[in-house]
Amino acid sequence: MEEMALFIGVSPPIFQFLICFVATIPLSFFHRYVPGGPMGKHIYAASTGAVLSYMSFGLMSNMHFLVLIIISYASMVFCRKQCGVITFFLAMGYLIGCHVYYMSGDLWKEGGIDATGSMMVITLKVISCAINYSDGLLKEENLRQSQKNNRLIKLPSFIEYVGYCLCCGSHFAGPVYEMKDYLDWTERKGIWIMSEKPSPSPYVPTVKALFQAGLCMGVYLSMKPRYPLSRITEPVYKNWGFVERLSYQYMCSFTTRWKYYFIWSVSECSMILSGLGFSGWTNSSPPIARWERAKNVDILGVEFAKSAAEIPLTWNIHVSTWLRHYVYDRLVQKGKRPGFFQLLATQTVSAIWHGVYPGYIIFFVQSALMISGSKTVYRWQQAVPSTNRGLKKMIMLLNFAYTVLVLNYSAVGFIVLSLNETINAYRSVYFIGTVVPVVLILLGNIIRPKPATSRGRKQQ
């Protein structure tokens, strides 16, 4: 095993984890044929997830998972009205405590692995389930559409709950899904109901996702030795000019993203093969199966985002959706529009969820600034009359360049994690990715153009 690990350039613990992670693909496929009805499938989902966790992280991993599961389930049993709030703070607090105890960020940088990454996924699952169970007490007419879709009227059984949390190793890297979807999938309800329409074939989209996973791994392994992050702290980096340093930071961020693209592509394979990734049919003729529930990243959407506001829609998609439904939307008072406070609070929760390293906090604060600055540019773009296509395209190109610049500058903090290294990396390029968003936000408060479409609507 050590020889294989060295061959692909990872540590033995990471290699062992990768074996278990890839094993989720066949295990998810076999879920389709588990006998015993829904109960048999719940037991299979829970047991395979627990065994894979034990093989990847050791016995203590399942103990940590069990703490999160028991905390949240007990709150739903004994305090339904407040179980969402209780679970949010207790589960998130326990996760933060484990982040601090294991110092997981440093361990990952050194080639190690621990269970905190999986705990992050389970934490989101137990919080959303508890909040949706609490929403089951509210009147439906007062709820947002997402609340109506996901609310739980009945308390799931404990085995259903454990199966939902550990289903076939989906807790390794996501994607995050809802308890209601898990139950409908297991019991063949909703879009999974047996009907005259044949079940969607998972094989073609699975092969596409597998090919994508292989391509991403190949790109990452080929680029990682050429752009080591450690070079940012070396004397040779300090001798480079501004453009060269900024370009190297871009390449470091770009290279790191392919590791995540690989991980999420493997997860996509597992979700598609199990059938849980199915999200309905298109309205085309003939209808085509959609697999959005399995998709956690749109690679081209990330790399060629026209605006920073598009990044949450293409990167770690289901976590972004979770943050929107369970943090961002719930901080907006009824009848009022969301603002920078809701955005900053959401990004802060995301930062703490990732870990307590300064690099995470700085990155997500930077993300809030980046998105706000991009929205300013977009408002200017909308104010340009449609007849002036050249200027519109120029501003659109400006927003694209701004997003590339600030995203890859900010991502360095997410990668290096420590405060000193983050500040030094930002200082080496004169804090350009911080100054530009702040300047745009200030200019946006001074220059407030009216949308160019308003006049056209009046004339119509």
Automatic annotation (TrEMBL):
Q: What subcellular compartments does it reside in?
A: Membrane
Top-level taxon of the source organism? Eukaryota
InterPro entries (UniProt xref): LPLAT_7/PORCN-like, MBOAT_fam
Q: Where are the transmembrane segments?
A: 7-31, 51-71, 83-103, 115-138, 260-281, 351-373, 394-417, 429-447
Q: Name one GO cellular component term.
A: membrane
Q: What's the protein's topology in the membrane?
A: Multi-pass membrane protein
Select a single GO molecular function from the record's annotations and give it: acyltransferase activity
Q: Which UniProt keywords apply?
A: Acyltransferase, Membrane, Transferase, Transmembrane, Transmembrane helix
Question: Which coarse location class describes where this protein primarily resides?
Answer: membrane
- Which GO BP terms apply? lipid modification; phospholipid biosynthetic process; triglyceride biosynthetic process
What PANTHER family does the database record attribute to this sequence? 1-ACYLGLYCEROPHOSPHOCHOLINE O-ACYLTRANSFERASE, PORCUPINE
What's the name of the protein?
Membrane bound O-acyl transferase, MBOAT
Can you name the source organism? Artemisia annua
